[in-house]
């Protein structure tokens, strides 16, 4: 599964598409069967409008649907489709901006994609992951760090004074 975000990261997806990578092709390069060990953290400014497109792939024999859950926010499911997400076509043809569902979990269809949107107004570290535990352990997850805003109510609370220290 590939993850993108509007702005810079959406442009990154355009680059991938321009290179001709087919996320849902029958045959994928063998090296993609082995995930790369990494710490994936995306920084988000407080109050930023975030759009994430979750792209399903054909890795692992075509895969299955993935229930992707985001902690800390509910989001609008603004679009979905099958095959590769097309950054120039899909927002105008496969998005529902009139009455999108409001959820905290969205199913990425097998060999398809889903687009979600939320306002990052809850500063702290948040986890987004596939709700199949097996997939979670395989690395189908990401961490978002929503930065503090300027207002006092837009910032993470400090630790309580009686919080035990780490040793
Ligand atoms: Cu999954």
UniProtKB/TrEMBL annotation:
SUPFAM superfamilies: Cupredoxins (SSF49503). It is found in: Secreted. Residues 37-149 form the Plastocyanin-like domain. Pfam families: Cu-oxidase_2. Keywords: Copper, Metal-binding, Repeat, Secreted. PROSITE patterns: MULTICOPPER_OXIDASE2 (PS00080). Transmembrane segments: none annotated. InterPro entries: Cu-oxidase_C (IPR011706), Cu-oxidase_fam (IPR045087), Cu_oxidase_Cu_BS (IPR002355), Cupredoxin (IPR008972). The keyword Metal-binding applies. PANTHER family: LACCASE-15, MULTI-COPPER OXIDASE. Belongs to the multicopper oxidase family. This is Plastocyanin-like domain-containing protein.
